[in-house]
User: Which sequence fits this backbone?
């Protein structure tokens, strides 16, 4: 499977999983899909038949609210049945709303933001002390970088020259109910450079650029951060750059049908949609009042009223 095929499947699974579960965070799932596609096809040294293999690379999705993305990636990589993805959020399911380590192929439970890089740095240092060659990769959200614990871990990693540690920032420039810089302004590049990390900026939807950055990570002898500029909701036009889709899920009718059909229009060769192989009916009318500007949707009072109405 190619990285583009896997990224497409992650988006398609994400639409289905949040639709069935009435779950949140489809915007974040869509923005991180290309990063996950490249990691799981071209970068991570893993073995689905031996998920606890000691020589495997360690991977932590620190932005655990985008759990559907990693669940889809491990399913398509053979760690769990693809059919199990339909149980996302269901009571008793292994596929909880935030990442759960009770699944094979998952190294750490996440969701309480700011912890993933600390754990990743600890594992990277342990590998060096034990003479092991595995690498550790941590994907963080840009809003998550408001957490002070992220910068404590960054300082720690630089001090110990953890060149076997790579952080990837899903830099979609939005968090929760607003743009990141309206919440807490951060110069992302200068901040990481100031903490001594080898800092690489890429288009987070360019698979060749992501692959090159990740393959060359650690060459400088320092920890590497790949700042991947992405689009929240990437792949579905009415979700893109609209903070409404941080918490909203694709509802029955126009939202679900149009999301699926837009993905079908960009389906790479060699992929089959496991849910709606022929797409969805296109004649469902668009509801009034769905599309809003970000300036309208990020206001908490407006946002909660809009969701209740829908």
Assistant:
């Amino acid at each position: 499977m190619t990285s583009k095929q896997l990224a497409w499947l992650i988006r398609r699974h994400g639409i289905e999983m949040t639709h069935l579960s009435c779950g949140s965070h489809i915007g974040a799932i869509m923005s991180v899909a290309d990063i996950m596609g490249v990691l799981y096809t071209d970068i991570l040294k893993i073995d689905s038949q031996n998920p606890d293999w000691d020589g495997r690379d360690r991977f932590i999705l620190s932005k655990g609210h985008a759990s559907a993305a990693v669940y889809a990636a491990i399913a398509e990589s053979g760690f769990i049945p693809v059919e199990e993805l339909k149980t996302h959020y269901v009571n008793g399911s292994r596929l909880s709303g935030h990442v759960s380590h009770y699944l094979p192929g998952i190294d750490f439970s996440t969701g309480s933001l700011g912890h993933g890089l600390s754990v990743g740095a600890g594992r990277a240092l342990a590998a060096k002390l034990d003479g092991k060659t595995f690498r550790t990769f941590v994907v963080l959200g840009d809003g998550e970088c408001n957490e002070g614990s992220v910068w404590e871990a960054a300082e720690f990693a630089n001090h110990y020259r953890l060149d076997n540690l790579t952080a990837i920032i899903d830099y979609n420039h939005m968090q929760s109910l607003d743009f990141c810089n309206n919440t807490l302004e951060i110069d992302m590049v200068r901040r990481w450079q100031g903490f001594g990390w080898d800092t690489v900026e890429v288009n987070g939807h360019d698979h060749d650029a992501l692959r090159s950055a990740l393959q060359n990570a650690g060459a400088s002898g320092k920890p590497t951060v790949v700042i991947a500029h992405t689009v929240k909701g990437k792949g579905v036009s009415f979700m893109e750059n609209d903070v409404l889709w941080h918490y909203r899920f694709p509802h029955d009718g126009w939202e679900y049908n149009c999301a699926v059909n837009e993905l079908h229009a960009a389906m790479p060769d060699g992929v089959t949609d496991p849910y709606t192989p022929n797409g969805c009916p296109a004649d469902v009318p668009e509801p009034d009042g769905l599309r809003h500007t970000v300036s309208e949707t990020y206001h908490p009072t407006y946002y909660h009223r809009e969701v209740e109405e829908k």
Remarks:
- The first helix runs from residue 3 to 21.
- The beta strands are 58-61, 136-141, 165-171, 174-175, 178-179, 198-203, 224-229.
- Residues 132 and 188 are 31 Å apart (CA to CA).
- The longest strand covers residues 165-171.
